[in-house]
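Morning!

This is the sequence you dropped in the shared folder:
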Amino acid sequence: MISMELLLVIIVAAVATYLTRYPSMVLSRYLKVSPAVERGFRYMPIGVFAALIAPTIVYHPATAGQIEWAFYAAVVVAVLTAWLTKSALWSMLAGVLVIALLRIVL
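The structure's back. C-alpha cells below.
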C-alpha cells in the first residue's frame, strides 16, 4: 500500500513536471525556430545519451576503476557500430552482445 505522503510527492512531482513543460508546448505553436536551433534540437537526444554514458566509460563503477577489457571492447564495438550505422539501437545491441559474449568466453 502506498503511503499518503508518497502519493502526495508523486502528484506534486507530476504537476511540477507538467507545468514546466506545458508553456513551451503552447509557445512552440506561435514561435518560429531558426534552422540552427532546430538542428540543435535534433542532436539533443544523442547528446543526453552521451552525457549519461561518458562517466561510465571513464570510470566503470562495477569494477571500481579496475580495467575490465570486455567492457572497453564493447565500448569500442558500440562506437564503431554507431559510426557505421548511425543507429543508437544497433550500437547498443552490438555493445551488449560483445560484452555478453566476452564475459562468457573470459
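Headline: The chain has a mean pLDDT of 86.

More detail when I'm at my desk.
O.
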